[in-house]
């Protein structure tokens, strides 16, 4: 694998300059004061696209506050990686917290979202900057697919423009555009151009091959996301990507952002966000996760979790009420493994293991080459080998947690884990998705999306009586930010009606399916 640590000094110089300039560069996506702010004579209005791109990458990786509120308190709770251990915090029991969900919305538009959009616009008509433009478009698709997967229909084609009340695009149109834009952006990358992104690219360090593989792997993810909503669209893009062969094909090509503790301006963009979230002591590893790991003697157990005060691995049930939490002291349950909460642990986006599970599903559906069983087994092996590499990367005293080759062999060969070639489609899909869920541990937004899409792995019933706002059903979306009711009411109402929501409910009910959530085998009581 590449030693990304060697580029940190250069990276941090870029980030520091970017941060200083962008403290003066204020752009707000949806505000009544947009025109006044946008013409402020004291503002820096000509920030180079390279600096916009860098900031969009770093903050788009989700700085700790967005990471905590959206990815952790919603994604990691809904996917049941973690369970809430704090009283008064309701997302774990399927209750809405407007402040937390709004953080992803506002940051994706008025923070890193506008940075990437401006970088794209500034380079659109300059053929010399075609590589920067393509890289920014790939990252734009990555950041915006999280937003539409979170909320459903969202402002997209008219977002980041001068219109203060942008229309909401349908999720179907958004996905169609993202898939085509990813294809075009990857094709646009050109090794022959004299201009290169250089130090501004803190993700792949100006490696265009890596950008191609990331863009294609992202397109594979998004194409499979629409498998139940538009099979023809999904199959077209899945087959196209896999036929190129230019995807993440090994752990040395994993897409993640390196961190640099102690660097920069002290605004927490340089550390692993989970380092800070862990320090808040607000969660424990879930009962579902511990049960899955212990049920098959999974060698990842001691990496994913730490034992409780009795030196036992124990998972906390999801969805406990405040009164129930009093009967479940924190000390009795496992905390997250040390590997994931170091300051310098890289922030993952797409890994080789995830790609192998996507390939396994594609082969299962008859959309891609190879054998589903082979892809499936390689996905498991790739994840465990990557964990061993991470242990070396963070340079902590975790050598004893490394997974030996014979442990990997024993795990993939045991009953219940070994791929059941003679099983039904649904049983094989459940195997693939369960191991995928284990492999992308901590990537709660992605795991929750896949649980909604396929129904696997099935979530445990939450413990609190009443089941929150969904009567105990896994939420299919989050509500829209309440601010949109005042800022953009007509377009919001149109979007809600288009998604079969209650026109009188400006925020959509969490049980309402979004467009790609169309698996006919999943029953949902929409409220």
Structure description:
This protein is mainly α. The protein is built from 21 helices and eight strands. Strands 1-5 form a two-stranded antiparallel ribbon. The longest helix has 23 residues. The radius of gyration is 22 Å and the shape is globular. It starts with 7 loop residues before the first helix and ends in a 29-residue tail after the last helix. 51% of the residues are buried. The N terminus is likely disordered.
Put simply, the count of helices is 21
Query: Which consecutive residue ranges, at least 5 long each, have pLDDT under 50?
Result: 1-44
| Category by helix and strand content | mainly alpha
Shape: globular
Could you spell the SSE succession in H and E letters?
HHHHEHHHEEHHHEHEHHEHEEHHHHHHH
Q: Please, what is the average pLDDT?
A: 90
Strand order of the largest sheet: 1-5
Q: Give me the Rg, rounded.
A: 22 Å
Fraction of residues in H or I helices:
40-55%
- Beta-strand portion reads under 5%
Biggest sheet statistics: 2 strands, antiparallel
Please tally the β strands and state the result: 8
Q: How far from one another are the termini?
A: 49 Å
Give the gist of this structure.
The chain has 527 residues and is mainly alpha-helical.
List the helices and strands and how they pair.
Layout: H1 8-24, H2 34-38, H3 49-60, H4 64-78, E1 82-84, H5 98-110, H6 112-123, H7 130-151, E2 154-155, E3 168-169, H8 171-188, H9 208-225, H10 231-244, E4 255-257, H11 273-279, E5 283-285, H12 287-295, H13 301-304, E6 305-306, H14 322-325, E7 335-336, E8 347-350, H15 352-365, H16 372-394, H17 405-413, H18 425-439, H19 444-454, H20 483-487, H21 489-498
Helix pairs in contact: 1-3, 3-6, 3-7, 4-5, 4-11, 4-19, 5-6, 6-7, 7-8, 7-9, 8-9, 9-10, 9-15, 15-16, 15-18, 16-18, 18-19
């Amino acid at each position: 694998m590449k030693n990304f640590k060697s580029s940190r000094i250069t990276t941090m110089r870029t980030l520091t300059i970017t941060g200083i300039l962008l403290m003066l560069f204020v752009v707000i996506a949806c505000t009544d004061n947009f025109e006044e702010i946008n013409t402020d004579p004291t503002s820096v209005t000509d920030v180079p696209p390279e600096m916009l791109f860098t900031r969009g990458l770093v903050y788009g990786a989700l700085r700790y506050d967005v990471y905590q509120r959206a990815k952790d308190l919603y994604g990691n709770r809904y996917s049941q990686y973690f369970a809430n251990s704090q009283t008064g915090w309701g997302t774990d029991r399927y209750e809405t917290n407007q402040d937390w969900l709004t953080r992803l919305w506002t940051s994706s538009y008025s923070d890193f979202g506008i940075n990437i959009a401006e970088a794209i616009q500034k380079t659109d008509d300059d053929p010399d900057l075609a590589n920067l433009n393509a890289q920014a478009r790939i990252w734009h698709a990555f950041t915006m697919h999280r937003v539409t997967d979170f909320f459903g229909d969202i402002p997209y084609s008219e977002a980041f423009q001068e219109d203060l009340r942008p229309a909401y695009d349908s999720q179907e149109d958004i996905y169609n555009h993202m898939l085509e834009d990813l294809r075009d952006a990857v094709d646009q990358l050109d090794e022959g151009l004299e201009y290169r992104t250089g130090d501004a690219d803190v993700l792949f360090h100006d490696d265009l091959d890596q950008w191609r593989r990331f863009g294609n792997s992202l397109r594979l993810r998004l194409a499979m996301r629409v498998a139940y909503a538009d099979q023809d669209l999904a199959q077209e893009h899945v087959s196209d990507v896999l036929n190129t062969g230019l995807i993440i094909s090994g752990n040395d090509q994993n897409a993640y952002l390196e961190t640099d503790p102690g660097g920069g301006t002290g605004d927490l963009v340089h550390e692993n966000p989970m380092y800070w979230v862990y320090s808040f002591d607000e969660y424990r590893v879930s009962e579902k996760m511990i049960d899955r790991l212990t049920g098959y003697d999974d060698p990842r157990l001691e990496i994913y979790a730490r034992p409780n005060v009795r030196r036992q691995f124990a998972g906390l049930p999801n969805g406990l009420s405040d009164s129930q939490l009093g009967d479940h002291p924190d000390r009795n349950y496992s905390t997250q493994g040390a590997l994931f909460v170091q300051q310098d642990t890289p922030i993952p986006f797409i890994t080789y293991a995830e790609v192998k599970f996507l390939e396994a599903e594609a082969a299962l559906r008859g959309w891609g080459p190879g054998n589903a069983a082979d892809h499936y087994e390689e996905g498991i092996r790739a994840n465990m080998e990557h964990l061993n590499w991470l242990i070396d990367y963070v340079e902590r005293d975790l050598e004893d947690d490394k997974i030996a080759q014979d442990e990997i062999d024993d795990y993939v060969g045991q009953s219940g884990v070994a791929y059941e070639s003679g099983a039904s489609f649904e049983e094989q899909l459940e195997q693939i998705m369960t191991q995928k869920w284990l492999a992308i541990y901590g990537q709660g937004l992605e795991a929750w999306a896949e649980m909604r899409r396929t129904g696997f792995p099935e979530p445990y019933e939450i413990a609190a009586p009443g089941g929150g706002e969904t009567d105990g059903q896994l939420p299919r979306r989050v509500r829209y930010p309440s601010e949109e009711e005042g800022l953009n009411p007509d377009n919001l109402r149109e979007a809600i009606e288009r998604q079969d929501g209650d026109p009188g409910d400006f925020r959509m009910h969490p049980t309402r399916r979004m467009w790609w959530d169309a698996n006919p085998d999943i029953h949902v009581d929409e409220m």
